[in-house]
User: Fold this.
Amino acid sequence: MRKKIVAGNWKMNMTPTQAVELVNTLKPLVANDEVDVVFCVPAIDIIPAMEAAKGTNINIGAENMYFEDSGAYTGEISPKMLVDAGVKYVVIGHSERREYFAETDETVNKKVLKALEHGITPIICCGETLTQREQGITIDWIRQQIKIAFLNVTADQAKTTVIAYEPIWAIGTGKTATTEQAEEVCAAIRICIGEIYDQATAEAIRIQYGGSVNAGNAAELFAQPDIDGGLVGGASLKPDFGKIVCYK
Assistant:
């Protein structure tokens, strides 16, 4: 059985002081050994959040990283920096990074390879726009994103990764894909991984759903056979995040 993983994506929210307060508020609410709990926080919040989360089941992750170890890349964060800070997870290829910061499938692949090289678990995001869904090309689009993201990734490495399916039209809009829509795409992702590698790899990889996940819909979504948890945006900044983590 794959262990569920629920990750909060804080996006560009929370000052370092606010981050510590939020971690302290959520600590008792997200105590659940049956689920891997990750707070993916802004870079400036990583160290204070890490300190606040010490001794708990909370893992601190990053929201982005660059695909070089060091160099003249002003404003970027390297995997070495994340490792030294104790980071175990990093969100890669979120639709907001693709839309606002010109990330491509190719740069996502470079970041995935670099994260794996340094022992960081990448949470690899994929998702379609409303237009793509209405045109009936959702599965084709997602398969392309997955195939490029996993280029030159070995089967053993792939088994350690996390994939987050987030329909772009459901992120922060209050709209949620139906349980059937979410399961359909997550199942298609697992089939795609099986085609790239083998059935064992497909069965090992964890696939999250993201897009307006909340305390009211988490249990139904996470009960689906191919949905192994969630990547949660706005709801991860509130006490209700505890109800998502402890969804049973």
Remarks:
- The CA atoms of residues 26 and 239 lie 6 Å apart.
- The chain has a mean pLDDT of 96.
- The chain has twelve helices and eight strands.
